[in-house]
Fold this protein.
Amino acid sequence: MEIEKELAQLKKTREEAKSGGGLKRIEAQHAKGKLTARERIALLFDAGTFEEIDPFVTHRCTDFDMAERKFLGDSVVTGYGKVNNRHIFVSAQDFTVFGGSLSEVAAGKICKVMDLAARNGAPFVAVLDSGGARIQEGADSLAGYGEIFTRNTLYSGSIPQISVIVGPTAGGAVYSPAITDFVFMVKDLGQSYITGPEVVKAVTGEEVSLEELGGATVNATRSGNCHFVCDTEEQCFQQVRRLLGFLPQSYKERPPLADTNDDPNRMDEEFLNIVPVNPTQPYDMKRIITKVVDNSDFMEVHEKFARNFIVGFAHLDAQSVGILAQQPMHLAGALDIDASDKAARFVRVCDCFNIPLVTFVDVPGYMPGTDQEFRGIIRHGAKLLFAYAEATVPKVSIIIRKAYGGAYIAMSSKSLRGDINYAWPTAEIAVMGPEGAVNVVYRNEIKKSENAEEARQRLVREYRDKFANPYVAAARGYIDDIIAPRETRPKVIKALQMLRNKDICNTPKKHGNIPL
């Protein structure tokens, strides 16, 4: 029958499309320790749920003998499926076809699924493994990048966008992941840089390898361009699936509830032994975070960048929350340029997607020094103030120890529209630390005393007893309650339950002008 013949041809053509650049190129991909685009998609989606879009598209270029070199689907696989039974859209660049280079039609395929994701209110995941713009197509390829960047921008804050870099990403191609909400990279596979080592050497004289210039580690630790680094592709896509579990489908929804089965009234006596008696002695803030959240499950974001500040996702009574905190183990938890950028960005991502903010505070202030001042810590520090003040999601904070000066204000304080502000009895809330305050306020008295150091130490003790505690702030309503450390988890959960129907709107306007 004619229909059977047509169906046989369809099956044959579809199999050809699935073969990408052919067996030899697939083997070459595997020889590099890399998976193919379709193998990556299989790791991302629930089994059997992926539906491909545009498998038969081919490029239209006729220059450079390209008319004779066509592959079904061209250099990207696109479609949709389910992750944890929720719809997700994807584009995965296929390095076996022209090195994954972006053509006009490949860009069109990517834009099509991005538009579908936005229209249907579902996350978009881009898997990047590409040699960049397709040189043979010139301006058409470059225009394709522009179309993708525009959609990244217009859909920012509307749907979650995640980039997974599992191969080279260079030149203009780096800007799409830079605009997206989260970037994953795989060690020894993912690379991201504007110009390669040859250009760097020609222009600056510096000699640097690909990995040193734009590998996963340097992007995660130095530039902060990468949020998550994974050892293998399998681990990477498992972590992408995990991250999606904390996020809603779009700005119109709340994140899904998790089945954590952790007692919301659970208390922990170990809190009493975490914070040292000596106010200058460091401790690991992650010990507090993991004891508060459900099942000690904390997915840290930007773990290797600006380590003096902690951000990440967790659940509290099954509700997805964004966690922010100082890390006294690094730079005493002071706010510097990188920490301010990291924290401000995370606040805004959570606010976009209706994820409440829980902030643990132990901040001695903004980082001093000419390097920070000359590089613009005023402008960068203002980003965090702007982000917290602008955020309309529920905001709960707990001051664990130090909260000094402008850094105290920046950390979800009542003045920045914090909803519930708690403090442990160990909290010190003041314009500056006792040592600095005494040196300023009692300068003349110390100079006149017979034993200046003894007088200074006495005044420091008096200042700490009188001002470096949470009771003065609580008396003025800046702190809503002083809580026993063991009560932290149930108190925060009850506050979030109370705030679940919070509904406020910012002043009508086109958009704010954050100090970039």
Observations:
- The chain has three domains: 2-32+49-244, 269-432+468-498, 434-467.
- Residues 2-18 form the longest helix (17 residues).
- DSSP finds 20 helices and 17 strands in the chain.
